Queue: 3 jobs
Job 1
Amino acid sequence: MSIDALQRVPPCSARAVELDEGDVLVIVDPEGEQVSDLVAFARDDTREYLSSGRSIDYASRLFLTTGDLLYSNRSRPMFEIIEDDCGRHDFTLTPCSKDTFEIIYGETEGRPGCEGNLAHALAPYDIGVDRIPIAFNVFMHVAVDADTGRLEVRPPRSKPGDRIRLRARMPLVAALTACSAGQSNNFRYKPIDYTVERAAG
Amino acid sequence: MSIDALQRVPPCSARAVELDEGDVLVIVDPEGEQVSDLVAFARDDTREYLSSGRSIDYASRLFLTTGDLLYSNRSRPMFEIIEDDCGRHDFTLTPCSKDTFEIIYGETEGRPGCEGNLAHALAPYDIGVDRIPIAFNVFMHVAVDADTGRLEVRPPRSKPGDRIRLRARMPLVAALTACSAGQSNNFRYKPIDYTVERAAG
């Protein structure tokens, strides 16, 4: 096994990373209270993508953590969560976007948001913005009211240095962000760090 | 305004229906306790589809009902719920599929499930199975535990004759099922009825 050099996703941006089967993607919140939207596609056929609906259905749970599998739309395991310091993530909301900022925040500067940043990072793989699905929103804390279904985005529970480790179960191209939405990171736009533990080499 | 003849979706199948802007799709549960998975695509460009993540985010609520908008992945309103007798639907789970039956129920007969039935109904529009997203699961009752996130599929709250009316906000091709998953309909596989109130004609 070898470990890639630690990479930094600068605030309000995204990076793509290729993973082989068995590689472990490690996502670190270096300063605490930051969210990283994670999406993934099968490298062999990018029509196969990480599916929140399949993953939640098979776990019968909204909140996924160590031991849980993240499935593709074709019901094949894409990731296994093998370590999770934080324990609370979201898998229901689409990445923030230009429209999110306008509709929810009344902001009209046209910032691309995580959606635009993910599409930019995935452009070399010919994956356009229409194909950015609901992300696995790492460290995102969304409280749910069981009676009304009301959702409340709270500051993440992640502390400085908290990490999550996800083992790839097939060859993937993944992309991850340092989130651009103020509500998600307590209005402090911070970086996200990541590395890959390579199964081969 | 004119009203189409009432159509029946036979048990464990799906139908596609074209809607113009202003048309109202009426989905009826004729016998009670049945679920209908609804998906929709913009007729002008089917890369634009009904998005659970966008809709839930903008409503800040998991459970949508009268007055709520259902958004596309491009953050444009596709439907407005204008009447809702039942009041409880799900928008987190992907349609049941051959794999669902195998993974959750241990069933190996290879029934296509709502996913396969929706893809079959949408084949004339060149929309394949990989593009069937999380559906608006009409009448589906999924209870959520706010602490653990645990999901429990319960029998629908819909009584015989309960209906939901959705006004199309753009030209759409929609598809809807009579659900094939036992857990969703209390293990009684029933039909679903629908009609369209046409804005023009």
Job 2
Amino acid sequence: MSGLTSSEFVRHAAAALERVRNTRPRVHCLMNTVVQKLVADGLSAIDAIPSMTSSPEEVEAFVEKADALSVNLGTLDSQRRTSITLGVSASARLGRPWVLDPAHCDYSASRATFAQQLLREGTPILRANEAEFWLLQVSDDVVGVRTGKHDVVRKGAQSITIENGHPLTAKVTGTGCLSGAVIAAFLALGEDPHLSAASALLAFGVASELAADHARGPGSFEPALLDALHAISPDDILKRARISHDQG
Amino acid sequence: MSGLTSSEFVRHAAAALERVRNTRPRVHCLMNTVVQKLVADGLSAIDAIPSMTSSPEEVEAFVEKADALSVNLGTLDSQRRTSITLGVSASARLGRPWVLDPAHCDYSASRATFAQQLLREGTPILRANEAEFWLLQVSDDVVGVRTGKHDVVRKGAQSITIENGHPLTAKVTGTGCLSGAVIAAFLALGEDPHLSAASALLAFGVASELAADHARGPGSFEPALLDALHAISPDDILKRARISHDQG
Amino acid sequence: MSGLTSSEFVRHAAAALERVRNTRPRVHCLMNTVVQKLVADGLSAIDAIPSMTSSPEEVEAFVEKADALSVNLGTLDSQRRTSITLGVSASARLGRPWVLDPAHCDYSASRATFAQQLLREGTPILRANEAEFWLLQVSDDVVGVRTGKHDVVRKGAQSITIENGHPLTAKVTGTGCLSGAVIAAFLALGEDPHLSAASALLAFGVASELAADHARGPGSFEPALLDALHAISPDDILKRARISHDQG
């Protein structure tokens, strides 16, 4: 964890949330069509500024104006493939941080090949599940976010485990995609990527817990999550963080 | 109604809901872009597993992994047309059940022709309104679901009428598409298609009534419907079912 | 304001809302993929009838069946560009009113050029922000809606300023697009376009205020806004309108 104690990390995360709210980073999202609205609303809720076009003619202009890029391989067709390639190249050329979510690349061979090709283009934060990590054979310099019951953020031998979160999150389509975009917003601060990714997930996990207090099920959980992302304060993070770490 | 009495059918429907929750069927959806998120969330709410890609290169791999297919002809362009053709062929080849919603095929001649072509490809459950049924001249071996004030599920001379439901459902875009996808989830159980379609609509109608208790209008009805689909129990169906049937 | 006093305008707006509910205008929407669901639900909430296809093969058939057209240039790709061109031409040929939202045309040169080309095709209501108006150099016969803290509806030297509204509106992606579609629904009444656009925005602004009473943040504001658009009465407009006007 870059030499920080757990409580130093939690204080870092709380302060990073404040910096996101103050700097209002622009995050361009190349998201599947299913989740675009939720991701845009979630970014707005933390005071980031989303843009969502995946038109090949426009993507470079929007990535240039953005501070970070969030890429998701869901609902992948040839046009989206072109746009993602253009967007990731532009992002690499401009030195912008980016997040890659290979979204079920284990279901479709063409999607897995494409994910591997993108990983050669630049070094993203990779947000994936166990099966996807295994398939993609990620190298040690990539910060990997393995989501599941707990979120684990790993770089080489170092890992941070976030125990905050709520099971209803998994019942709402797109919350994983949104957490990737929130990571991109924190990366835009230009701080250590490992800490930024873990800070973003800690904020997201705490917001999920706050949301659950106002939810009757997965339907009401979604607006409650957006309300909580809008309301969450550094203090909520300091009070509720449950993390552990392993220095490798 | 395949020889069942009304109360035997209601018990069948209640048990079918339980089996859906336990078996977690995978439903691939070829849906218009407007409603993808609602349909995915609604399937997750009943513990089915949705997938939504309509990319021509990926659709067959996803249909192969799915237990049933739900097709909606809204926002139909040439790429979606290709994907639907590929998806329906794969589904027919694999013997998977599927639902077809011709979505306003009476507005657009090219859409009606396409619907007729799909009906020759295999025998779906057809979810349509009066005008669409008339236009498509469906043969007697197709299970037809006519939605409206009451839902009528017909096969040949036999019909089941579901009186449960709530008028706010019609004010929320995509609830009809979602009911089609819920039918697909019940079809995945591999039971009599006529009973499965009627069971799905009964569960959906009862959930709509439960949702209305927590709604102030169409906006709050949508999350309440998802909450209700998540919460609805076999017991709710047994207590609230209002159906009638006609043996032809 | 076409010679009306402020209170005459407010009474006009209240009556126009009633006429929209009674006539149920059909509004075809060529919207970016992010906001389609919200826009469809918002139109249904005021009892208008939305359609959303942007397939080039279908758009003309749908525009023909519609009473007004609402066009938004977000997520613009070549197919959407074709559809919008076809839709706007059909609309001009049929003499249907239409609304144009150039959506960040200041971000992308190709989008700005396309917006200018559409403005030569016919005379829409133009819904834009300050930067977009400046860029597009709109002629005096276009009714311009400048959204921001207050909404200003201008034609030539005459302007109406709507002070109703709520800051949470800006935190929900697609509320601006929806307000454009609501303008289209009011335009479908066939009355003075300047008054219709201002009436629509007044109704929308008052609904936003009603919604805020039931919102905990931007997430719960969205369903509350749809509930309010469904519930808002002419009386709410008469009681809550805060407008000013300038006769030039």
Job 3
Amino acid sequence: MARLREQINYLWEKSPFYRQKWEESNFCPALLRTLDDINRIPILHKEEIRLSQEQDPPYGMMSVPGRGPFIRIGMTSGTTGEPVIIPFTEEDYFGVYCAGAARAVWAAGIRKEDVVHAAFGFTPFLGLAAAYDCCEHLIGSLVIPGGIWSSLMRLTMIRKLGITVLMGTPTYLLHLAKVAEENGIDARTLGIKTILTAGEPGKMSIPNTGVRLEEAWGARIFDYCGTQETHYLAWLCDENVGHINEDLAYCEVLDPETDEPVPPGESGKLVVTDLISKTHPCIRFETGDLVKGIEAGATCACGRTLSVMKGFMGRVGDIIKIRGVCVSVAGIENVIRGISECSDSYEYIASKTEGGMDKITVRVEPKYDVDSGQWDDLRKKIAQKLQLSFMVNMDVELLAPGTLPVYELKAKRFRDNRPPITDTGEVSTKAAEKATARV
Amino acid sequence: MARLREQINYLWEKSPFYRQKWEESNFCPALLRTLDDINRIPILHKEEIRLSQEQDPPYGMMSVPGRGPFIRIGMTSGTTGEPVIIPFTEEDYFGVYCAGAARAVWAAGIRKEDVVHAAFGFTPFLGLAAAYDCCEHLIGSLVIPGGIWSSLMRLTMIRKLGITVLMGTPTYLLHLAKVAEENGIDARTLGIKTILTAGEPGKMSIPNTGVRLEEAWGARIFDYCGTQETHYLAWLCDENVGHINEDLAYCEVLDPETDEPVPPGESGKLVVTDLISKTHPCIRFETGDLVKGIEAGATCACGRTLSVMKGFMGRVGDIIKIRGVCVSVAGIENVIRGISECSDSYEYIASKTEGGMDKITVRVEPKYDVDSGQWDDLRKKIAQKLQLSFMVNMDVELLAPGTLPVYELKAKRFRDNRPPITDTGEVSTKAAEKATARV
């Protein structure tokens, strides 16, 4: 509460953007008496940040006037439009952003003695890069970049250089294990002890992805998540529990329709307040993420008492309403990764039937060793499991292995081909627009 | 001399590799009385390093026993075989390798206020990465990676993010300017003040490459060079003079046939002794580079009194003997870059005529705006200029623009299709083997 008050007072003084925004909605720092008063502060939408950067490039409201010099920038991946640019001073980058990442890295057991490989290309997308920076700058491990290596070169180097830690997206690291298999290499013998994933939902949100990675690599899988605009929010401990960096950011879970807080532990949309950063503090930032819930006040078996993140369910636009039922994209992923005959390549498409009904088509590649004679049974099995999970029938199509693209960074698996829905329809206009914007 | 003596004594004590190598050739530190005695120390060949790494992976003799922990590795690009792996402690990396790079960066006028973009993918090839690390760690500029960006994305970001410094290979940065032109963007208006190139011969060695880059970007071009095994050796100042980091490394220029020193200022092969690094010191390392010469004792107009590197002429294997005449690959490049109708894409092939004569074929892409009606004149012009430079006739072929590959890292422009030559031939077996190994 003291940190929140300090942050709010600072921005009231220093940031013309927040001063104006808050005055317009009749908020002033004096109204902040208890933590519950946080809902008097208006929510900050990504679109406002983007607009401010258009008007005052390149940083817009992400730079409190007079702050600098900057040593890093972050850029959102631009999945929902023009990327947002986030400038970091040394203090904000190493003292806050990387410090948040350091807890994920430390909890994963990564130490100075490890040899850490970045299986991704460096760009200002900091999701993975900051954990790498953290190994380099804060932990002092031997760090080995190689985003532009071919998969086969990478496998050779993992063995040759004694690499013990891999960082990358779940999708790419599953692909890498497959390349190993195709080349007669057992990925479990390569000496990888620890895998840290980010950039896409990993073990914290989709446990079956974690299981697949652990089987493929014979390694412990850790996962962390956050947003570029704010921080590293949560990371897995040894007990597979997601802990929140609650001293760095205050997380609220709200009802997506009413913006009111949901009861403790229940699911809803995640709104984050950056308590620490001085250059680009986001106050009540609507992340666009849906979370399974947050629980406070428990003590984890690992000994930590931080609030617990129960995992992400997808983006606000990724909850598809199908004939009145909410279907989460991450939920579909979890079902597919739980079926051993399915490969890691799949996508889902929402569309309308000719009769105007909502329809989801799930397209999956079976593994190479699944005989095509078994495909029809597999198709039925997938459809049945999806039906059991969601109580909705979905169309399942099987594709020849190798048909779908392989993603090195964030996989784009969802397309919504439905026409925009008016506000009399069953999906709110806003959600439909968001879903469409992502295509 | 004191540094050299200290280094030699240290290795005599600590490195079984050097102890054995030196004892076998009857050298011991006591023999080192004056600087001239350095030629009593046997030369170190890349093959010896490679062999030691095969026997004692991954570092072999590149790691003095007991040194560590390592925070970085370097890897040679492997153009002449299996890459050599060079481990760095924090002290060797930031205190020596990056400190050497820092002089190049500083001489290029890059300061904290600059926004530095890495137009290359990060791998353990440190040629470019260390200058970037130096901007990040030692100078504190805003550094922006983006090796995996498309060229068009990169051009957009240069403008959007206010990038002032570009780092990359000459080949790629010339290509990037071409992409700008093709998309109606004048690269000279993008705000780049400074370009620092490495990884391939740049302005120091091939002045016309510098002129091309300056014209294309409207920026000052700086260049530096070195080897992964040793250091950053030399870098350009404001006066376009190459200065040697002579306190970090001792450079000798030797006759490629006899291994005897050439007279001061004359050309020959470069042999380098690392005076400082404690983990991987190379003593009298045969770099495989041919230099135009080194001059000591002058004071540059920039005020520096360091010895001067007159530039590189190519690799030892890149001097092709054609009918008794030495032709340097870098020399061909300089001729082509001096002809305005030629694009930056070309390659050269050495082969034998049916009659058994040596033959060089130079294949060049004209610029897009050169009418094909002018091609025959251009072909003659190139052949004539090459003849004037080398007093040897070469075949010139023109190729449709876009035929040859674009290289992001080191360009491979030379192929030697001649059969290996015996030691009775006009090229020594060793040089021919090297040339062949590079194909």
